[in-house]
Structures are given as structure tokens and as C-alpha cells.
Design brief:
Shape: globular
Strand content: 15-25%
Helix content: 10-25%
Strand order of the largest sheet: 1-2-7-6-3-8
Number of helices: 8
Oligomer: single chain
Bound molecules: S-adenosylmethionine
Largest sheet: 6 strands, antiparallel, barrel
Radius of gyration: 21 Å
Distance between the termini: 27 Å
CATH topology of the largest domain: Elongation Factor Tu (Ef-tu), domain 3
Length: about 325
């Protein structure tokens, strides 16, 4: 598998003059990744908000050579699940209040959420362990994007780690509402069907299932879900390096067309070489020249961050 484009090697907290006083007074901790996750999920849009059973089990955690990790993995094989502690390395900064992707647009305290925008950007995921071979761990569904630095592994112990009756009031309320609400049915216009088939066939780009999952759940405008109203009868949703234009009629969501999220003028710039699906977007725009973003604000991207005029989404 290919190496991450910009492998981050250190995770440390800025305790310099710009850090708030409360942090400058405390000791700091520097962590180094023990390895990197390899997965088909290249952009955040493709990774579930938590791992879901339906996502592809093609995730490999490759530990670094020369550190004795083969020995450290001893006795792990055979465990059903492991905890991964990892670094939200695609994020910069944090916010005390965040807008969770599910439910009505209401901000919550970051410590009451699983948001990536945390003061210490640490992710925690229990993943199925499918096998161990040398320094590689084959994992089931997980919510990390490709190249994510992993900081630690621990066994998941059902007797200590599972509390199925524990309450989480605002999240339980969302789950109850989602269970009771009718799901939308997602349909595709001919143009969208042709575009998605072309992307899959020619560029191995396929985000249809995730698009259906998100629109079926809730197609209303929402910043974190990257859904924007365009006119009285149309809206768009950001899908990584792509966008889908859709309309809603009662319980039917109709995806009208797919668009490249970056305009050609950005994609051709040398500082945009790292944009996900760049070649696919250029080829797509050659074939569907009108399907360029109406507002030209760009898309979710991988580091290094794109120039300011194409700010990535914070979702
Ligand atoms: C809601 S967070 C939950 C993560 C973890 N299960 C937790 O509770 O700490 C999952 C989201 O993080 C985002 N994500 C995945 N890998 C990331 C990375 N390396 N840097 C920043 N965001 C990432 C994806 O958008 C994914 O949907």
C-alpha cells in the first residue's frame, strides 16, 4: 500500500507564548505514531461518524519497523476487538462548542461529543481485529481516514468497557427521534446515474452508498453535514472532492447531478496537486464542463491545506 502523503511524526501541544495561560503552566506530552492506517477511505466524507457494520473491511494498520512492535503484538491475535487511540491529524484547532452532524443544527460542548475538533486531537475507536500478520493488523470497519497516525492499541474488554445501559441524554434523544422519523427515499436522475457510473468505471471513485446514507437520514441544510440550500427547490451536499445537487419533495430526495467540488482553475494550480481525486475531477470537468461548483469555495481536502480561497469544510 502507498505511504501517507505527509506522514505526521509528532503529536505535541503548542505551549509557546500563543498558548493560553492554563496550558503554558502544565507539563506537555509528546507522542509518536506507532503506525498508520491504510484504508480506501481517503477523505473524511467517506469515513462514518462511528464505524458502521456495512463499511468495507479493508483496513490495515501497519506498525513501524525497527521498534520491536512485532513483540508488542504478541498475544493479541484471537481478540475480537481492539481499541485504537489515534490522532485527528487532518484537523487544526479546536472549538469549545461544536455542531454535531446529526439532528437539528444545535451546538454542543465538545466534551459531550465525539467531534474531531478537540483541544487534544485524540480519536478513540473500538475496531474488530480480523488478523495479525507480522507488523500488520487487518481490521474491520473503522472511522479513520487513510494515513491516520495511530498512537496506541489496547485490547477491548467487554467486561470492563461495555455498559449498554449507560445514558447519554442528548444522543439518546437523537437516536429515538431518528428511529421514529421516516427515512427519505433517495432517487437519482439519469445524469447523476451516468456520472456516478462513469466515476466508478474510469476512476474507481464511488461515494454513492455514503451519499444515500446521509440524504436518507436527513437532507436539511446543515453546516457539518455540508448541506447548503441553493434555491427554493435545490440544495447541494459536499461529498469529499465532489458535490451532489439534489431536490426534496416530501419524503423523496432526488439527486439531480454530480459536480466537481473544485473549479478547473484551482485544479490546474501547482499548489493543488494534493487535492483528492484531482485527476478524476479534471477528467470529469472535461466531460461535464458545466458541472463546476456554483460558489467555487472548494471542498474537503487533505493536508497541506489548500489556499485560502478554497477553504476545506470543518465537518
Ligand atoms: C466523529 S469522529 C469519531 C472518532 C472516534 N470514533 C472517536 O469517538 O473519537 C469520526 C470522524 O472523524 C473524521 N476523521 C477520520 N479520520 C480523521 C483524521 N485523521 N483527522 C481528522 N478527522 C478524521 C471523519 O470525518 C470521521 O467521520
Amino acid at each position: 500500500m502507498r505511504p501517507p502523503r505527509h506522514p505526521p511524526t509528532h503529536f505535541s501541544i503548542d505551549l509557546g507564548a500563543s498558548a493560553p495561560l492554563c496550558r503554558r503552566l502544565l507539563p506537555s506530552l509528546t507522542l509518536q505514531p506507532i503506525g498508520y492506517l491504510r484504508t480506501r477511505q481517503r477523505v473524511k466524507f467517506q469515513a462514518g461518524h462511528q464505524p458502521v457494520a456495512a463499511s468495507a473491511a479493508e483496513n490495515i494498520l501497519e506498525l513501524l519497523p525497527g521498534c520491536g512492535y512485532e513483540q508488542a503484538l504478541q498475544d493479541l491475535a484471537g481478540m475480537d476487538r481492539i481499541w485504537l487511540l489515534w490522532w485527528f491529524h487532518r484537523n487544526t484547532g479546536w472549538r469549545p462548542l461544536v455542531l454535531p452532524p446529526r439532528g437539528p443544527a444545535r451546538r454542543r460542548g465538545v466534551f459531550a461529543t465525539r467531534s474531531p475538533h478537540r483541544p487534544n486531537p485524540l480519536g478513540l475507536t473500538a475496531v474488530p481485529l480480523l488478523g495479525v500478520a507480522g507488523r500488520e493488523l487487518l481490521l474491520g470497519p473503522c472511522d479513520l481516514v487513510d494515513g491516520t497516525p495511530v498512537l496506541d492499541i489496547k485490547p477491548y474488554l467487554a467486561a470492563h468497557d461495555a455498559f449498554p445501559d449507560a445514558r447519554a441524554p442528548w444522543i439518546d434523544a437523537l437516536d429515538d427521534a431518528a428511529g421514529a422519523a421516516p427515512r427519505h427515499t433517495v432517487e437519482f436522475a439519469d445524469e447523476a446515474v451516468a456520472q456516478l457510473a462513469w466515476l466508478r468505471e474510469h476512476h474507481a471513485v464511488d461515494f454513492r452508498d455514503r451519499l444515500v446514507e446521509l440524504l436518507a437520514r436527513d437532507p436539511t441544510p446543515h453546516r457539518t453535514r455540508r448541506i447548503k440550500r441553493r434555491s427554493s427547490d435545490s440544495a447541494s451536499i459536499g461529498c469529499g472532492a465532489w458535490r451532489a445537487e439534489f431536490s426534496v419533495d416530501g419524503e423523496i430526495v432526488r439527486v439531480r447531478a454530480i459536480e466537481a467540488a473544485y473549479p478547473r482553475s484551482f485544479l490546474e494550480r501547482p499548489d493543488y496537486r494534493d487535492v483528492p481525486d484531482r485527476a478524476a475531477q479534471l477528467a470529469f470537468l472535461a466531460r461535464w464542463p458545466d458541472r463546476t461548483p456554483a460558489d467555487a469555495t472548494g471542498a474537503e481536502s487533505a493536508p497541506p491545506p489548500p489556499p485560502p480561497e478554497a477553504k476545506p469544510s470543518s465537518a
